[in-house]
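Contributing new records

If you add data, match the layout below exactly. Sequence lines come first and carry their own label; structure lines follow with theirs. Keep one chain per record. Anything else will be rejected by the validation script.
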Amino acid sequence: MARAKRKTKSYSFLIIPEGKDATHNYTVKSWLIKALVLLLVAVIVLVGLGFSTYWKVASIALDYNRLKEENFELRSSLNRLSGIEADLKRIQKINKKIRNSLSGYVQLEEEGSTDSTVQKELTHAISNPAKSRVLFRSIPSLLPVDGFMTRGMLITDLRMQPHYGMDIAAPTGTPIKAAADGVVMFNDWSERSGYVLVIKHDYGFSTVYKHNQRNLVKQFEKVSRGQVIALLGGTGQVSSGPHLHFEIWKEKRPVDPMPYVGMPSKIKQ
């Protein structure tokens, strides 16, 4: 009859130093070895869970910061749009007073429905959070490139040739970004302005980008706000150096870009 196998109660370790007769014998209980192995496994599992938790928390923190920045940018844009709405109402009141004062003396054409339609869309979008983000991305509100502002909009001085936008000087090859969502309506070369892009946006807006070193988008291509669309250059006969000439047009009329996209961080003295 086979004898029952005895359980190992302890382990002995014999250490024999080289060149010495004396030996060292160490005895370790089996339960202690098992406990050490379990402790090592537990430490490895905890370290793994710690790394996993750290990356999840880091990812959540990055998403939070990104959403916080987008929220701040959206609030700033909405405040700017509220100002635009107030200006539009003021202009409509002035226009109405002028029409009333000229009634009977001059035959005036009736106002088109475009302005009133845009006004209704702006009012509805501002009061509707679901459409606020679409409005924010559709109206030019992003500075295409940062650098030195060398010249602003000038159309009132009859002694000088009109300047329908703002000039921003920066190193050649600096990325130029779309000021809002839209569709590229013009992408070609002009003798005076070099490589030119024209993007059509919603609510009657268009933006123009001149003197580009190279255009990176195609005609009729949809572009997103902040997308790199060209590289800054100094092409064209009227260019005095590397810069972007940027224009905003509203209902086929040029408007000052600064109230919409802000001012570059540096202004040439």
